[in-house]
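Our consortium's second objective concerns turning raw sequence data into structural hypotheses that experimental partners can test. To show how far this objective has progressed, the report includes one record in full. It was chosen at random from the queue rather than selected for favorable results. The single chain below, 176 residues long, was entered without modification.
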Amino acid sequence: MTTKLILTISVAILVTAIASGQNQNDEAALMKKHLQYLTPRLDGRIAKMTILFGDLNGDGVNDAFIDWCIEATENDQDVGGANALMFLKCVEEGFSVYMKTGNDYLLKADKRKDNFNDEGFLYCADKIENRKIICSSTSYAEDDPRCCPSLKRIFYLVFENDEILKPGQKVKVIKQ
């Protein structure tokens, strides 16, 4: 087996496709297309993707939003200060938008997550609703121990003018 085939098989196992009634052929084709797009960045690593389907531009057609991560390997781990080990989950992560055009999906936007990380929290995309990508993260309340963040932060992204944007809205914080 070639490395590319092994990576494809690994990614196929790791992909989570969230699509009520979405054609599995579309999912497989989109996964393959996005893997080809990410391949130059992989350097032997595995890509993990969550694919959400929903109408992002109001044309009544389901588009695709991909929350992706290039997973860290043991070689990527770093020793932190104060006797703490830093265990990286991802060496790079981002969001991509593919618009459905005819029978194909075209990549319209790709943005690293750190462009949205103005508060130092890791985000994940949960669903598409009313042309918005609903995202969440966890964070620490003032009295939380390091092991256990108790706040869930909810915010949304939008896709406008071929860009993924985080509108200037207040982040909703929920005590879990």
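The partners drew two points from this record. The chain has two helices and twelve strands. Residues 1-22, 81-86 have pLDDT under 50 and may be disordered. Both points have been shared with the crystallography group to help prioritize constructs.
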